[in-house]
Amino acid sequence: MADVHAEMVANVWKVTAAEGDQVNEGDTLVILESMKMEIPVLAEEPGTVAKLAVTEGQVVQEGDLIAVIE
């Protein structure tokens, strides 16, 4: 099981994965936007998205939980 956390303060621009989705290492889960730059948040290991903790338009802080992969 792997927790995926935000690395910086940013807006959740687009959610590209859903709970229950199968993902591979390197797949994009969420795209964050900060200072007009798009930052993809990638799966760090293969598995199933057990929890998606963000929604589009939400502001995340550094260290906030984005997703849980099992």
Termini, distance in Å? 4 Å
Biggest sheet character = 4 strands, antiparallel
Order of helices and strands: EEEEEEEE
Helical segment count: 0
Number of strand elements: 8
On the 0 to 100 scale, the average pLDDT is 96
- In the predicted model, the low-confidence regions spanning at least 5 consecutive residues are none
The percent range for strand residues is over 45%
Cα Rg: 11 Å
Please state how the strands of the largest beta sheet are arranged side by side. 1-8-6-3
Class inferred from helices and paired strands: mainly beta
**Percent in helix:** under 10%
Protein name: Biotin/lipoyl-binding carrier protein
Keywords: Biotin
InterPro entries: Biotin_Carboxyl_Carrier/Decarb (IPR050709), Biotin_lipoyl (IPR000089), Single_hybrid_motif (IPR011053)
Pfam families: Biotin_lipoyl
